[in-house]
Amino acid sequence: MPEEKKNAPPEATELNRRAFFAKLGLGSLSIAAAGTVAFGYQFLSPNVLFEPSPVVNAGKPESYPLDSVTLDVNSGIYIIHSKEGFFSLSAVCTHLGCLTAWKPDLGIIACPCHGSKFKEDGEKIEGPAPRPLPWKRVWLSEDGDLMVDRSTDIRPMQFVRV
Ligand code: FES
């Protein structure tokens, strides 16, 4: 121990210890107060989920050849150009929600998870899926693009003719 500290009066050492604990206490209170403010702000601010729009711009009708079934993986929909016109199906299997796939060689939509199969118009052929693939609302924008509302199911056989 250095010579100076050894000879320091006991009050000075006590004072340093008091000052140290006072600063420690203030620091702890500051951290607790900051935590309370942060928690309070998080508690009072609204819990809003910013989800992408359910409306998909599928592009120009000319980009879909006649008798084609096109899967948009990002949107989870099929754009189908049939002789009757355009329509869109959900590509999400009605069993447990797997993404289905178009099998051009078989002319069916198949689910890789449990083997459900659907016709091109969404009607179920076989498998555990309880319902057909739902049709989605389709319309033409003012710019002539095909628009699909993934959040709106419609009755089947409502085609958009271009
Ligand atoms: S999720 Fe498609 S058949 Fe089960």
Concise overview:
This protein has 162 residues and is an alpha+beta fold. Helix content is 25%, strand content 30%. Strand 2 and strand 3 (77-82) form a beta hairpin.
Task: Name its key features.
162 residues, alpha+beta, six-stranded antiparallel sheet, four-stranded antiparallel sheet, 2 helices, elongated, binds FE2/S2 (inorganic) cluster
Descriptive overview:
The protein has 162 residues and is of the alpha+beta class. It has two helices and ten strands; from the N terminus they run ααββββββββββ. It is elongated, with a radius of gyration of 33 Å. The model has no long low-confidence stretch (mean pLDDT 92). The structure holds FE2/S2 (inorganic) cluster. FE2/S2 (inorganic) cluster (FES) binds at residues 93, 95-96, 98, 111, 113-116, 127-129. The site of FE2/S2 (inorganic) cluster has 12 residues, from loops.
Q: Write down the Rg.
A: 33 Å
Q: What are the low-pLDDT stretches, counting only 5+ consecutive residues below 50?
A: none
The overall strand count is: 10
Largest sheet: 6 strands, antiparallel
Mean pLDDT: 92
Helicity range: 10-25%
Strand order of the largest sheet: 1-10-9-4-3-2
Intertermini distance:
94 Å
Structural class: alpha+beta
Topology as a string of helices (H) and strands (E): HHEEEEEEEEEE
Q: How many helical stretches?
A: 2
Shape: elongated
Strand content: 25-35%
* Ligands and ions found: FE2/S2 (inorganic) cluster
